[in-house]
Amino acid sequence: VKASTSDGDVVATTVNGAVEATASGSVQARTVNGAIRADMGRADWSGTAEYSTVNGAINLTLPADFSAEVEARTNSGGIRSDFPLRIKEGRYVGAEASGTIGNGGRRMKLTTQNGAISLRRSRASLRGTRGSEPLDSEFRAAVADTLRAAHRLARVHRAQRGADAHADARV
Length: 171
Prior knowledge:
Elements: E1 2-5, E2 10-13, E3 19-23, E4 27-30, E5 36-40, E6 48-55, E7 58-62, E8 68-76, E9 79-81, E10 86-89, E11 95-101, E12 107-114, E13 117-121, H1 123-126, H2 136-170
Parallel strand pairs: 1-3, 2-4, 3-5, 4-6, 5-7, 6-12, 7-13, 8-12, 9-13
Antiparallel strand pairs: 8-11, 10-11
C-alpha cells in the first residue's frame, strides 16, 4: 500500500505487503507481512497512534517538534531513535523502548515480531518546511538490522534444539 497526501492524514492497513505513507498530517499504519515506512508532517492525532506488523521493520520519520508517550517493542530486531527514549536490548534478540518525547500528551505504540524499529527526526521540519523525503538509506539500514536479528534468533533456536537433543540423549 502506498499513500500520500499534501493536505491531511493517512490511515493505511493491509495484510500482505509493505505500507509506505507520506502526509502533511499524521500517519497510522498496520500490516501483517511487510514493513511500514511513514513520514508525517504533524503529530496531532488524538488518542493512541498504532503501528504494527508481524514480519517487517517499522521506520517512522517524525516532525522535529514531535511530542508523545512512546512504547515500542520488537521480539527480533533492534530499536533506533533520534528522540530520547529508554531502549532496553534483549539478552539475545529483541528490544523494548519507552519514554516521553517533548511534552508527551498523545500516545504512540509500535510493535513488530520480526523487524527493527526506527524513529527519525525529520530533517525538513528542522529547516522549517513541511514534510520530508523518505530516508531510503535509513530504511535499508532498518531492514538490514531486521535480517541480522533474524539470523541471531535462528542461531539461538538451533543452539536450544541442540541442547534439548543432548539432554534427551542423556535421559
